[in-house]
Design a protein that fits this description.
Blueprint: E1 4-5, H1 17-35, H2 40-65, E2 67-68, H3 70-99, H4 102-125, H5 131-142, H6 149-180, H7 192-215
Antiparallel strand pairs: 1-2
Helix pairs in contact: 1-2, 1-7, 2-3, 3-4, 3-6, 3-7, 4-5, 5-6, 6-7
Length: 217
C-alpha cells in the first residue's frame, strides 16, 4: 500500500493550493453548466468537458499538495500530466460540437481526441521526457482548434473568439514558464510552477465562460 506524508518544506508553500481551490470551484461551476444543456448531445459533450476540468484540477491538487513516496509519486505524476491532454480534448469537445457543422465537428473532435490520446500515452509511458518537449506537445494540441476559429466565430461572436484566443495564449505562456522554469520569484513560497498553475486556472476560466455563453439559450 502506498503511504503519504504531510507536505514538506521542499515544495513552495503555495504549491498545489491554486488548483486545490480551482477543483472545488470548478465542480460547482460544472454542475451549473450541465443544467444549461438543451439536448442529450450537448449534455454528453459538456459532461466530458466537466470531467476533464474537475479531473485536471483534482489530480494536480492531490499530486502537488501531498508528499508521496517515490512509486506513488510516479503514478500521480503520470495522472497529472495525462490530465492536461484530457482537458485539452475535453474543452474542445462541446466547443466543436456546438459551433461547427455536423460533418466538420465529427472530424475535428476525432482529430483532437487522437492527438490527446497520443499525448496521454506519452505522459504515461515517457514521463521522463524533457519539460520543453512536454510543453511543445501541450501547445501543439491546444492550438489544433485554431483552423476552425473562423467558422466558430459565426456562433461565438467576437467576445467568444477573444475568450478562446485569450485562454489559448495564457495556456501557451504557462507552457513556456513551465519549460523554462522562469520566472521563479519566490522559490520557498511562490515559484515558477505556481505561476504556471495560476495561468492555467485563468485560461481555464476563459474557456469555461465561453462554453457557458454558447450553452445559454
Amino acid at each position: 500500500m502506498y503511504t503519504l506524508a504531510i507536505q514538506k518544506i521542499e515544495k513552495p508553500y503555495l504549491r498545489g493550493r491554486v488548483h486545490e481551490a480551482a477543483a472545488f470551484f470548478s465542480l460547482g461551476a460544472c454542475l451549473m453548466l450541465l443544467d444549461l444543456c438543451q439536448n442529450l448531445s450537448q449534455f454528453l459533450a459538456t459532461l466530458v468537458y466537466s470531467f476533464s476540468l474537475v479531473g485536471l484540477f483534482t489530480c494536480s491538487a492531490i499530486y502537488h499538495r501531498v508528499q508521496w513516496e517515490e512509486k506513488a509519486r510516479a503514478i500521480m505524476r503520470r495522472l497529472d500530466h495525462a490530465a492536461i491532454f484530457l482537458l485539452i480534448a475535453g474543452t474542445m469537445t462541446p466547443l466543436f460540437l456546438i459551433t461547427l457543422s455536423p460533418e466538420t465537428s465529427t472530424k475535428a473532435i476525432a482529430l483532437i481526441w487522437i492527438v490527446a490520446t497520443v499525448g496521454i500515452v506519452q505522459a504515461v509511458f515517457w514521463i521522463g521526457a524533457p519539460k520543453w518537449l512536454a510543453a511543445v506537445l501541450y501547445v501543439a494540441a491546444g492550438w489544433l482548434g485554431f483552423p476552425y476559429l473562423s467558422e466558430m466565430s459565426l456562433v461565438i461572436g467576437r467576445e467568444g473568439v477573444m475568450l478562446v484566443l485569450g485562454g489559448g495564449i495564457l495556456y501557451t505562456i504557462g507552457a513556456v514558464v513551465y519549460a523554462l522554469k522562469r520566472p521563479n520569484p519566490w522559490p520557498r513560497m511562490f515559484g515558477y510552477h505556481e505561476i504556471f498553475h495560476v495561468l492555467v486556472a485563468i485560461a481555464a476560466a476563459c474557456h469555461f465562460i465561453m462554453i457557458k455563453q454558447i450553452l445559454q439559450p
